Amino acid sequence: MFWRRKKGPAAPPQIGCFGKLPATGDFIRLNAGGEELAAFDRWLGAAIDFARRAMGPHFDAHYQTALGLFVFHGDPKGDEPPARGLVGAWAASGDNAGRLYPMVVFGSYDYEQLVAAGASLPITLFPLLAAAHDLAANGRNMPVDAFLHRVSQIAPPSLDDADASHASYRAWLKTQPMKALWDAGFGTDASRFWVLQNILESVTPFRGQELPRTGLALRLPLGAGDAYAAAVWMDVTLRLSRWGRTLMNAFWTPQRTLLLHLGPPHVGSFRELIAPTTHAEHIADLCGPPPVEEHVSRHALGPELDALVARTDLSLDSFLEALG
Q1: CB atoms within 10 A of CB 146
Q2: pLDDT (tens digit, 9 = 90+) per residue, 227-251?
């Protein structure tokens, strides 16, 4: 059971970076001494090694143009959740000796504040995500001091008021029909029963288990919905899983796809970020056409969920509230 110990006031958010720049042979760090950064660095280093081995001579070509956004937390310690989590952007980079390693620009936040913001994080922290993405993508050829100065100028949005954090996202949900989610990501609503069936079946073994220990991930399309679509997919998954204290590790490429991990990110996920396949054993890929007839998925959902998913005229807000 997590969260037995009462915490003091949340430590303020902190902006930082770590990684490689072509201007130097050194590893660049700013405000990157926390345990959450060490955990991210361990995963990223191992995941890059895995991708190199899996892709062989094709790795460099796919790596050079890769970039994305992320939400990440480290491992819990015994009965205690992680103290902090990360939200930010990464972009392929390397040093002046040709050694490859991404540049990561991040905001480090109190874990419980991130959990309280929940699925609204891609919207609430969009100013941070946009600034980090722009700098990681376009600042790699800067001198080191100039790059670090730009990082230090990024202002972290506050998560002190949980209700305020949700407000913009909740207001938007009331204006959008479910059909808009399906059309933006899939171009049609024909996949909707199969997609919900697979999300439900993926989370069912871990329902009610906070911070589950599984490498399973869901790949979902974003399309024009972008950060809003990422937020909705997080929301759907959190509601179906019945989690209230779990921050999901998420990686996405703007207007393309979201890789949503139910537990710690799998070592094979970086390879899937830079050159997606359709056969990774740890990923339920929900971006393509359904491989089964619609009636099979509708039956698997059961009468209540089937009737709910059928209503593409419902607002996103009404749909999500009905999920629980």
Answers
A1: 12
A2: 999 999 999 999 999 999 999 999 9
What's the one-letter identity of residue 314? Answer: L
Tokens of 23: 């201007």
Evaluate whether 141 touches 187 at the Cβ level (below 8 Å). no
**Ranges of each domain in the chain:** 14-323
Q: Which two tokens stand for residue 300?
A: 């698997």
d(CA 31, CA 127): 19
For 274, the token pair is 């830079």
Q: pLDDT by residue (tens digit) across 17-72?
A: 999 999 999 999 999 999 999 999 999 999 999 999 999 999 999 999 999 999 99
Question: What is the tens place of the pLDDT at every residue in 7-19?
Answer: 668 899 999 999 9
Distance of CA 67 to the CA centre of its chain: 13
Among left, alpha and beta (phi > 0; psi -120 to 50; other), residue 233 is: alpha
Taking CA atoms, 311 is separated from 19, 304, 319, in Å, by 46, 11, 8
Q: Give CA angle at 273 (216, 187), nearest 5°.
A: 90
Residue in the block written with tokens 């001091």 = 145
* 14-323 has CATH 3.40.1730.10 classification: yes
CB atoms within 10 A of CB 223: 17
Residue 118 tokens, joined: 């929940």
Amino acid at the residue 4: R
